[in-house]
């Protein structure tokens, strides 16, 4: 169960400095001392934290105040901290504060001007609260599991000292209201009565407005009939729009737009009367619009207008993929053709074998022998072979560049000049013979084998690669044209829309578009576009009309209308006939006459004003009827439920507290039985008595009655907040009633934390004596505490 912990407040009411009270681990806390030393202030501080306001105060006027009624020092902030504990552990700290500077609006009694925030722990320094870590999205009702905690606080948890006195001064007519307040319904009853009063005023006003409007409707009808005669119409009720043009129906701006609507309807009538000319206007406009604003789409038609559908792009992508793969193959075979014929390295053998594996298998033995011989040939022999090979390669390349008619030839090997080419090559052959004689048996065999492979394997590989390159390289030339088409894939829809328009308009543009995907448009696009635009311009038809298609189309668009072959359709696809438009023109003419009639305008405004008032009043009247009915049902249902639930414990507790009654019985509780019956709550001495207890009991008995009621409510409807606050309950109780009260609290509410105030020392001593067994009791004398504090 949840109880009070620590309480700290500063600059609150009569307390200017910081004052702290510790309720922790205390079952009975008695505040005693003379009146005026702050007992009720402590109760007020607790109530402010728990409910956000002080329930007993009320505003006597609505005037702005220069001072705040809860602050002691005006230019100093007020801070109140209240700790809630469960099993001696802090579960919540409530911080109620009033800022240093308050507005005159916040100072009003009804506003209180109190800010409530929540903390998870008690502040380390209660005097330094500049940086508090408040909980977000938190409510006291949620932790107490009671959504009505604030509204029922003074019923379940708090009995104020004045509640035991002022009832004796009430008139009999106020008894039910005051008793209902104890049950928590007086506020709702007052609200319901207030609503009923307002409902009566509204009903009277509603009836008066209805009668006035009836007269005004007749006067307006006569004025309208007189205007209808000017349009050769005997019955103005027949003058209304065709309802096929929405902007003429329920349009508040119709008067200001009247001339524009008349002109627009005239244009629509022209369309229906000149369908062929409208088609020509539309066609010419479309051609000019395409030329001026659809250049990109026209270019795309030229490039990909030959494609049948979007799936053609998939075939183009596959074709491009095939060509790209083919390009890689051609590149590989070109590498074979680029190999030097005079150089036969193992890397070259491996490359040719990889590219032409079938041919490689044919010369498997020779290739194997070649690799073996290269492995057996020593470094010096390998060098000789490379020299011979390099010399032969150099000779071959040199012969390709040297002129046979040169007078003097420079030797590419030693740099000496020879008189003729013949002399040069004779010297070359001598040197070659010299190097051949330097070769050993393996080198000679290797040379013969290399020569054989060059003349067979190498030659066949090069021949096959040359065939592949010659046959397929031509396909690489169409790759740019295919990429040109594929790049327009994302623009297919806009292109197709334009191409479809050409087809529907029976315009053949086949001579100006690409014939097949392999054709590259490229730089010829400008020429083709000029030819296509020139062709389209020649299609524009001459027309003598002064009408502009853009204006006519704007009218159709303005009214959300569509047109096809000179036929106009409304938003629901209904055909708009010429008679419909003539009907709309008549309506506009009549509306124009009405708008210019000063008498009708005044009458219409008068009716409109009264209708607005009547609609508002009727709406509020219906709301009030529902509200009053809901109030009545809820109040009666709640009162009956409460009365039934608490009647028995209330009778038992009141019998214990009112032991001085001669018959020894408690008080009975009566209430209305159904929603139709006038509501009442009545405390009666016995079941046959229909006199209220206020008229039959003493003030001491009434004090006991109120205490009994609060205790009964707690017994029947227990809550998580097990603390009872009772401010001076014994001012009008005698010793016998007081003894019974203490005995009842000890036996029936032993698990409750009690905070009680009294101004009598003997009463606080009596409470302490009765509670000292197995209970923690603490007595705080406010007079001594305040004087010592000072």
UniProtKB/TrEMBL annotation:
This is AAA family ATPase. Residues 593-620 form a coiled coil. It comes from the Bacteria. One of its GO terms (molecular function) is ATP hydrolysis activity. Residues 6-226 form the Rad50/SbcC-type AAA domain. GO terms for biological process: DNA synthesis involved in DNA repair; double-strand break repair. The lineage of its organism: Bacteria, Pseudomonadati, Pseudomonadota, Gammaproteobacteria, Moraxellales. It comes from Acinetobacter sp. A1-4-2. Signal peptide: none annotated. PANTHER family: DNA REPLICATION AND REPAIR PROTEIN RECF. The keyword Coiled coil applies. Keywords: Coiled coil.
């Amino acid at each position: 169960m949840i109880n009070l912990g620590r309480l700290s407040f500063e600059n609150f009411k009569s307390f200017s400095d910081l004052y702290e009270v510790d309720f922790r681990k205390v079952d009975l806390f008695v505040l005693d001392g003379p009146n005026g030393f702050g007992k009720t202030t402590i109760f007020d501080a607790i109530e402010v934290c728990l409910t956000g306001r002080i329930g007993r105060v009320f505003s006597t006027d609505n005037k702005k105040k220069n001072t705040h009624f809860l602050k002691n020092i005006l230019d100093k902030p007020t801070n109140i901290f209240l700790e809630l504990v469960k099993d001696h552990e802090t579960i919540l700290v409530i911080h109620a504060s009033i800022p240093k500077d308050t507005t005159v609006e916040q100072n009003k009694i009804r506003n209180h001007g109190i800010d409530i925030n929540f903390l998870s722990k008690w502040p380390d320094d209660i005097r330094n609260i500049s940086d508090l870590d408040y909980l977000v999205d938190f409510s006291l009702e949620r932790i107490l599991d009671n959504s009505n905690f604030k509204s029922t606080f003074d019923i379940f948890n708090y009995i104020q000292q004045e509640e035991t006195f002022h009832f004796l001064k009430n008139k009999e007519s106020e008894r039910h209201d005051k008793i209902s307040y104890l049950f928590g319904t007086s506020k709702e009853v007052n609200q319901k009565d207030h609503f009923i009063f307002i409902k009566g005023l509204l009903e009277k006003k509603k009836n008066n407005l209805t009668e006035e409007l009836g007269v005004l409707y007749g006067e307006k009808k006569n004025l309208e009939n007189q205007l209808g005669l000017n349009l050769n119409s005997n019955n103005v009720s027949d003058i209304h729009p065709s309802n096929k043009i929405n902007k003429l129906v329920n349009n508040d701006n119709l008067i200001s737009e009247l001339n524009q609507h008349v002109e627009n309807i005239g244009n629509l009538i022209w369309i229906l009367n000149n369908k062929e000319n409208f088609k020509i206007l539309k066609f010419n406009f479309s051609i000019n619009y395409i030329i001026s604003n659809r250049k990109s789409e026209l270019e795309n038609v030229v490039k990909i207008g030959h494609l049948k559908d979007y799936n053609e792009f998939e075939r183009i992508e596959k074709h491009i993929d095939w060509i790209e793969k083919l390009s890689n193959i051609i590149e590989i075979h070109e590498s074979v053709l680029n190999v030097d014929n005079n150089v036969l390295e193992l890397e070259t053998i491996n490359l040719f074998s990889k590219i032409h594996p079938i041919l490689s298998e044919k010369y498997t033995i020779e290739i194997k022998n070649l690799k073996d011989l290269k492995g057996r040939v020593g470094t010096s022999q390998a060098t000789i072979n490379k020299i011979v090979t390099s010399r032969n390669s150099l000779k071959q390349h040199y012969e390709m560049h040297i002129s046979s008619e040169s007078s003097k030839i420079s030797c590419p090997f030693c740099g000496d000049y020879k008189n003729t080419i013949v002399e040069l090559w004779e010297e070359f052959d001598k040197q070659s013979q010299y190097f051949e004689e330097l070769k050993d048996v393996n080198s000679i065999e290797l040379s013969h084998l290399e020569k054989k492979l060059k003349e067979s394997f190498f030659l066949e590989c090069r021949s096959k690669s040359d065939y592949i390159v010659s046959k397929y390289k031509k396909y690489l030339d169409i790759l740019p044209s295919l990429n040109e088409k594929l790049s327009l894939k994302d623009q297919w829809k806009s292109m197709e829309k334009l191409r479809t328009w050409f087809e529907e308009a029976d315009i053949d543009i086949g001579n100006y578009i690409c014939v097949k995907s392999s054709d590259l448009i490229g730089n010829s696009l400008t020429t083709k576009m000029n030819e296509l635009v020139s062709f389209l311009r020649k299609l524009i038809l001459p027309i003598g009309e002064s009408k502009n298609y853009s204006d006519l189309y704007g009218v159709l668009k303005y009214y959300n209308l569509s047109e096809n072959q000179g036929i106009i359709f409304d938003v629901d696809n209904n055909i708009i006939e010429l008679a419909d438009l003539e009907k709309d023109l008549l309506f506009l003419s009549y509306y124009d006459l009405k708008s210019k009639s000063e008498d009708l305008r005044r009458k219409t405004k008068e009716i409109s004003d009264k209708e607005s008032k009547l609609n508002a009043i009727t709406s509020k009247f219906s709301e009030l009827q529902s509200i009053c009915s809901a109030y009545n049902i809820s109040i009666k249902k709640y009162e009956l439920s409460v009365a039934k639930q608490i009647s028995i414990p209330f009778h038992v507790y009141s019998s214990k507290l009112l032991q001085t009654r001669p018959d020894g019985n408690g008080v009975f509780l009566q209430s209305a039985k159904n929603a139709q019956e006038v509501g009442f709550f009545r405390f009666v001495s016995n079941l046959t008595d229909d006199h209220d207890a206020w008229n039959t009991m003493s003030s001491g008995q009434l004090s006991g009655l109120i205490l009994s009621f609060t205790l009964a409510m707690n017994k029947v409807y227990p809550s998580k907040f097990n603390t009872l606050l009772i401010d001076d309950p014994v001012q009008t109780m005698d010793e016998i009633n007081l003894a019974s009260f203490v005995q009842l609290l000890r036996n029936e509410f032993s698990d409750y934390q009690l905070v009680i105030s009294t101004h009598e020392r003997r009463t606080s001593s009596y409470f302490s004596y009765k509670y000292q067994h197995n209970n923690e009791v603490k007595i705080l004398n406010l007079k001594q505490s305040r004087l010592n504090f000072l």
